[in-house]
Amino acid sequence: MTLLKKIEGSLVPLLGAEGFKKRSGEVFTVELAEGFVGWLGLNRAKHPRGLELNPVVGVRCQELEGLLSTLLRERPHKYVPPTLSISLGYLMPEQQYRCWVLQEDAVISSVADMVAAIVRYGVPFMESACSLSKIGELLESPRFSSAENAMYRRPLIKWLMGDREGALEVCASSARQFDERSDLAAEHFMQFARGLESLGNQIDA
């Protein structure tokens, strides 16, 4: 049995006992409040002594991500991407990057330690972020999201909370940085901005 198979054989049952469902790749989800899903991704890298895993935990707001897919004319996905996420180590007392190196002779104990940390530090974070207002607050911090990720989601949070004017203002403010650009990233965001504006016009009509 390969090291990867040993890890999966230990990891999936332990996470399953905590309510996590295995998805494709290295992604797991857990049901939280209605419309919100707890998200776990395991970044994997080779290590001289085995395999390195870096857990990334987050929350996905299904309504927000569904609307984003619609505006971008993309096929909606059930669990990718998370609305916001953070490497687990930054939620732990040390507040720094943390990975687990899994070796052939200590898979079970290492996996158990990692799952315990996910349950102790990751799950409470997921549960605390199950509202649009909390996600909006966290997206203001670069710790929880890249600037690009927040640029799409901040206006949608305002929109879904009923502040349509504020949503369009935030979107327009972000769009101004693309005024002199014609690359794919610029076109992608401008398509989003046009979609949001058009949605507002449809409601007003």
TrEMBL record:
<protein>
    <submittedName>
        <fullName>Uncharacterized protein</fullName>
    </submittedName>
</protein>
